[in-house]
Amino acid sequence: MLEAGIFDVGVILHLKSLVGKMARTSILMAMEDFYAVHRNYTTKLVLHIRDSNGDNMRAASQAVDLLQNYYVRAIIGPQKSSEATFVSDIGNNSQVPVISFTATNPTLSSADVPYFLRATLSDAAQVNSLAALIKAYGWKEVVPIYEDTDYGRGIIPYLVDALQEFGASMPYRSAISRSANSDQVEKELYKLMTMPTRVYIVHMSSAFSFGSTLFTKAKELGMMSGAYAWILTDGIANVVDSLSPSVLDAMDGALGVRFHVPKSKELDDFTKRWNARYRQDNLDDPPLQLSIFGLWGYDTIWALAQAAEKVSMDNATFQKQQDIKNSTCLGTLGISTMSIGHKLLDAILQRKFRGLSGDFDLRSRQLQSSIFQIINVVRREPKGIGFWTAKHGIIQNLNQNGSEHTYLNSGPNLTQVVWPGEVSTVPKGWQIPTNGKKLRVGVQTSGYPELMKVEMDPLTNAIIATGYAIDVFEEVLKRLPYAIPYEYVAFHNVKGVSHGSYDDFVYQVNLGLVILNADWYKYKIDAHKG
Ligand SMILES: *[C@@H]1O[C@H](CO)[C@@H](O)[C@H](O)[C@H]1NC(C)=O
Ligand SMILES: *[C@@H]1O[C@H](CO)[C@@H](O)[C@H](O)[C@H]1NC(C)=O
Cβ < 6 Å from ligand 1: which residues? Predict the structure, then answer.
């Protein structure tokens, strides 16, 4: 009786990675919790957990092994988008549902592979929230810095489209190879510094350790300072609580978008139990913060266990199909659980419930975007500064129960952001790359000092220019959409004796000097007086 109810399920994760470890603990807890609540169920999932070690081929061969030798009726995982490309095809060909709660590359979902589901969002879901931020701050150009993998590249076309909608563009794309060393990361950052765009979207998964190297290097090179804006996609933002203090320190001032998990008593309770359990499962590891991936893993088990029970109840002849296969190679891998596979898929698709992660609804073969939280890394802590919803755009607060319908303080207001370098003014996002060169602005004391007066600071030898013409000039610079670093160059010697005639002064334009000509005002005033 018990034997007949066994429902074999393969699990393929990268067990040494942060997300893999987190998910393993969540999945095991979900099994215990589910069957503690459903003691009378006639089926029971039996998990066969495998470590892909982050390797596509290994994930694929494990999927084949699980199907052929363990007759699994569903596969949970794999973890990475590139692994999912293979495993989803293998599952689809055998008509065995493959449910990944971490693979977010938008191109994975397609009507051609109906047996691939994801209990996570497609990366296409978050691009609108990223674009909304870019738009809200008035930035016109953005450079994505992403890992050069299926995952990293997958988001780019969607981001291009979302930016184009309001006329922003992507003048350059910075793809960082998986095999890059920190010198190569540094070289790439130097390259970015020579370009005018100062707004970066960092799209890397937590398994890709260069997220950490990137920020540490960027900080070393002075790119985590006032002129720059950094935005994290949810690849890093979803797990930002688990990053080491030194990495968070380097990220200070970055913005990020991440999936918003509604607060609940169940979640609080689970988080406490999870923390204790994770420590127990990983005695040698530092504590880890539970992230959304752990919750999606948990909810996936509940969805699958529920669907398994439904299928077995609906199917009187349900039994372990031992007789089906004895082939050993992929080419002859048959449709082992054909009738079950189809019914199981339907049962999962139709099962909609409120899980720990929020609404769990796979009817469109993936979770739908609901709400993204906007975070700002401030003094090593991710601080929530607002939300983005498809309906309302950027807003400051959700109501108490996080429902979609009623909002407080509607309208973009993200003024409390602390930007890189602990600056409170919004970076302009664009700077004429100078490599140390500044725009040289020639100035000369006017006949009317209230129009322009040029002095030299006796201590620093810096030129101090004041007066109406200077005020106007500086105001104009402030209003430009990009920053121009400049310095004043006096067109007279220290004693205030001009180096030459007015014509000589103007001639300096040919020598690369921009001239502020206060004497135009003088002329007008003289004429008026006359
Ligand atoms: C996936 O499975 C479906 C149904 O069995 C089939 O129609 C489709 O061609 C398969 N897709 C691929 C890419 O093999
Ligand atoms: C294994 O496959 C072979 C060839 O398809 C078949 O003749 C044989 O009966 C199968 N064995 C079992 C145990 O099903």
Answer: 89, 92-93, 95, 112-115
